[in-house]
Amino acid sequence: MNDTPSDSASPGPIAAPGGDRATPPVVAVIGVGLIGGSVALAARARLGATVVAWDPDPASLRTAVERGAVDVAAESPAEAVGKADVVFVAAPLGAVGDTVALVLAAAGPDTVVTDVGSTKADVAARFSRDGRFVGGHPLAGAETAGITHARDDLFEQAAWYLTPEGTTTGTLYERLHRLLTGLGARPLAIDAAAHDRAMAGISHLPHIVANVLVSHVSGALDPDEPLPAIGPSFRDATRVAGAHPALWADIYLANAPALLGAIEDASARLVHARTLIERGDRDGLVAWQRQVAREREALQAAGPDPGPTTELRVAVTNRPGVMADIALALGRAGIGISDLTLSPSPDNTAGVVGLWVDAGEAQAAAALVQALGFPVTPG
Amino acid sequence: MNDTPSDSASPGPIAAPGGDRATPPVVAVIGVGLIGGSVALAARARLGATVVAWDPDPASLRTAVERGAVDVAAESPAEAVGKADVVFVAAPLGAVGDTVALVLAAAGPDTVVTDVGSTKADVAARFSRDGRFVGGHPLAGAETAGITHARDDLFEQAAWYLTPEGTTTGTLYERLHRLLTGLGARPLAIDAAAHDRAMAGISHLPHIVANVLVSHVSGALDPDEPLPAIGPSFRDATRVAGAHPALWADIYLANAPALLGAIEDASARLVHARTLIERGDRDGLVAWQRQVAREREALQAAGPDPGPTTELRVAVTNRPGVMADIALALGRAGIGISDLTLSPSPDNTAGVVGLWVDAGEAQAAAALVQALGFPVTPG
User: Which has more confidence, B122 or A232?
Assistant: First the structure.
């Protein structure tokens, strides 16, 4: 497989050739499971897109056509990619990398390619030199699987992480961002490694720990002891224990570096708790509980809070990485971009980026963008 | 304090002198917080009991009287114990042992004394030679505290662990058991050490682990990274993080031996998960998820399932520990006793124990009791 960008790709500049954005987009979907099928349904229903799809399972592809998710069932990934404006690679985690490579080899220079895998560092590193690829991860739909559960509102208000790199072509990033908001999602730019650490902490480690709790109670207790009455704290903490064995084995392995770090850190924190208990350090335990209560409150308060939005207009020079720099600076501050436009100057040496952000966060967003060296004016 | 039974106590035999069970009981409650106050309300409302109470905080005691939970506000624990048939020590965990000692010193030979602390091995060991004491632990009401939240239906269908010992006086155990079912609870006999291990696994360890998850995400992640969108698995797993700092510090310390064992075991299981991930052992991870899914299903299926009950009549000889042997044998099998009677023979050398158990479990219960050497007949 060809993991490096073809010479025809156009990495770097904010503007790439072609593509009239007034006409409905052509969207290619590789893999029509729950996520791919829902992208297809939403793109057709909400954006009037033409959806071309391929799936290794002919039955799933047929069902997708029957459900009205797909206009054209392609014979191969390359055929599906054809003249697509945007390609979604919605393959199982283990197949994402090779499928993206295949798609990039088949796609033209004005096609943006993204994936929906739950880990991002691997794929970002593998394709970081191709300006057409942007890693993605929608936080939606883990409980069920398959085209039969696909819905056109699956991404309504859902966070959708994007991992732009310095090489990402600005106009292609803008196109993908706008298409995602059109599906109802809230795109948020994040560094790929930071994404994987965050997912390890808020999703993968809780699954590991739920397994540990169940296997402790089930295995470590004397089989002659009565099974205890399961209280609400145990039930809540173990709801995801043993979920989807094959899927979760792949997720653990795909995010191994970050997850191993999280397990290491959690183990050290268990040792801390053990030490406080061993010492009979009541003051230390009270302080620990209090500290955790404050941290929990802060985490809960950090949730997204959609409100009225306002536009900022940013004058940029056309250099590689401009869009990634802006999107990541706001993403790091937890500021979502509800809409994003890019207007290159006629000679393509500069341009104006339009950013729609929460009105309450506009001042902070403007300061962050100005700190990058770009003049900002209200829209 | 006097931790050993007074000479007037009557350890061992199934029958103890006195006490006409037809008249409503006199119940003493030492400590009228959420649990003590709810015992008082339920005993008056459901059993027509006379409730005498004492609390170190005069305001709480006044409120208990005003709320109609208490008939007589006593000036001291000894005065409250007076002529009580049953004494509930509902003191904070750190004060349970000394308060039980005080109460046993003040109580007569025909008084059963119990506590409601969430750990049992300590108190069981300290008073194991006094036939009047039975350790207890209702699984109810951890979310709020104080007499103002007390309710007469707090124990409706709630599991209420009891830890009888070989020395426990049979008639006193019967009286306590019947009073608890009268409050709406489901008493279940359990070995004190097994109780503490079970609580460590299903309650205390989940609290420790919830703290670890929150402090990991809050502390281990780079403060420059965006706070991640908190998903449902994290929210569920950390609902109890940082709960009631002083209360939980005391609970951790009171159950230190069992909890340290649980933390040790959980740490070893984390190492197991880490090793599978480090090795890239996909088959091992899939097998682990599958195994946990089966264990979780078994734990869920083990929950109490109240149905029609049936009576078993057990002929017993009057020797120390008979009631504890029977109650613990059924408790170990997870068989709840919804009602319990004890009819001593006129010469007090033998008697008949009536056991009401789930109809579906009657055969298993009869086999277990017969295996102890006692003839069983249907009621």
Answer: B122
